Amino acid sequence: MSAPPRPSNRPQRGQGQWALGYREPLNPNERMKKDADGLTVRQRILDVYAHTGFDGIDPSDLRGRMRWMGLYTQRAQGIPGGKTAVLEPEELEDSYFMMRVRTDGGALSSAQLRTIGGISTDFGRDVADVTDRQNIQYHWIRIEDVPEIWRRLEAVGLTTTEACGDTPRGMLNCPLAGVLADEVLDATDVMAQTVATYLNDPAFSNLPRKWKTSMSGCVDHCTEPELDDISFVGVVNEAGEAGYDLWVGGGLSTNPKFGQRIGVFVRPDQVTDVWAAATSIFRDYGYRRQRNHARMKFLMADWGPERFRQVLQDEYLHEALPDGPAPAPAKHDQRDHVGVAKQKDGTNAVGFALRTGRITGTVLTRIADLADEHGAGRIRTTTQQKMVVLDVPDERVEDLVAALAEHDLLVRPSAFRRGTMACTGLEFCKLAIVETKQHAQDLYAELEKRLPDFDEPIGINVNGCPNSCARFQTADIGLKGSMVRDDSGEMVEGFQVHLGGHLGTEATFGRKIRGHKVTKAETADYCERLLRGYLERREPGERFAAYVERAEEAWLL
């Protein structure tokens, strides 16, 4: 391997890197973590806060360490988006929590899903969200109820530990891992080993910021590995051996970056050690001085893949990894596993669309029952806010499709229903500027009426703020929440438009059209106008993202 390039001109000292001796607290978050590890808050919740109630929670635990246990305060009701950047956190927050259940790889048994559903019904006002990272989130959680919720989750092998915070978050895997005949390899075991070894480990409970992992052998790249801090992507080397290509440094938010290939071949038995070594690099060399500069993508932008590989091998693994091939392009454009897919054992995986991830605990419980009645009690969540029931015999498929449809869970949804995602939004999120969940549902319903014959895949991602929890930069139509001036001059909820984002071999972030913005009330009209133009002007076989790339700006306004 050639000598690594010199570091960029960015100063490599003084950015808060532990490995260079900069361990002093550099911002309030780092001071909070130095005062007490985030994992220690669990015992205080059990012993103190569950008894004192919300008002007895120490502020540094409330707005800091409780995230290590999957708990965020939720937004108080009735505060408009224009106040988001004006009010202090304590003025924005309610005395209730969002709670995230960690479901690595989206893998759930019917008993686990029934427990999740029951908790939502009993403690969360029957509200739940399936996220685009395969987790399930509650709202309206009282601190007094947390011990009982944990007891129920842990009884079926689930946890909220390190679902949030400056930790290794829940890991992504293909929801059909182990059942599809054409997968490169099944990452289930290597992910389980990594989680079992390092979840709740103080060695990685104080990272510079969040650490998102994907491990998958899916031929569709359904975990969207381009966007994670670290991704293990299934490949086959020249010797015919299945393993993983290593990608590092992906992430979105206000400074989006695609992950970079490190160029190594990782055998399955090496994955856990390589993951731990890469996570250690982030812990030791990550930039801690400024919170908005503390993600792995910034270190990778300065280092590049060659230097990262050298440090990984020389300082942490103490062995060289062989060069490896790039993975094959995604086999299908759509990565959501919606529809009926044949499993290698002859049964079927039945994937279905929710309403932009929003669901009730009652319906989750019903899905668990249907998975028992029509399959073998195995359910999966996807990275597109969808769900899948596995192991359905041919003769039971249509019965299951009909039973799901009774709850508005669609195995054969419209292109708009299938392609629309939304983050939590103003309803519960303290960072949001606009409401998203209901608006996204209204939007796809309106487009179904206006363009009933539209059948091209189309991604419409609705975000409440610039943080891109619903990945607006990589959607065909990305809508980023913003306050917008309407025709009368009033500031109202609206969106900045990003068009033509896509992943894959020629991945690109969406195009901003002269800062084009639409009010919330104008969204359906704008999308209809945009899509009619696409239908009129597209070339044979041309997908929307390709159309946007060549479109005149006037076509996109």
Automatic annotation (TrEMBL):
Top-level taxon in the UniProt lineage: Bacteria
Native source organism of the sequence: Geodermatophilus maliterrae
Residues covered by the Nitrite/Sulfite reductase ferredoxin-like domain: 94-156, 342-406
GO molecular function, one term: sulfite reductase (ferredoxin) activity
EC number: 1.8.7.1
Function text: Catalyzes the reduction of sulfite to sulfide, a step in the biosynthesis of sulfur-containing amino acids and cofactors.
Cofactor requirement: [4Fe-4S] cluster
Enzymatic class: oxidoreductase
Region listing for Disordered, in residue ranges: 1-31
Keyword terms: 4Fe-4S, Heme, Iron, Iron-sulfur, Metal-binding, Oxidoreductase, Thioether bond
Protein name, per record: assimilatory sulfite reductase (ferredoxin)
PROSITE patterns cross-referenced by the UniProt entry: NIR_SIR
Domain Nitrite/sulphite reductase 4Fe-4S per the UniProt entry, residue ranges: 164-318, 417-555
Reactions catalysed: hydrogen sulfide + 6 oxidized [2Fe-2S]-[ferredoxin] + 3 H2O = sulfite + 6 reduced [2Fe-2S]-[ferredoxin] + 7 H(+)
InterPro entries in the cross-refs: NIR_SIR_4Fe-4S, NiRdtase/SiRdtase_haem-b_fer, Nit/Sulf_reduc_fer-like_dom_sf, NO2/SO3_Rdtase_4Fe4S_dom, NO2/SO3_Rdtase_4Fe4S_sf, NO2/SO3_Rdtase_FeS/sirohaem_BS
Organism classification: Bacteria, Bacillati, Actinomycetota, Actinomycetes, Geodermatophilales
Family that this chain belongs to: Belongs to the nitrite and sulfite reductase 4Fe-4S domain family.
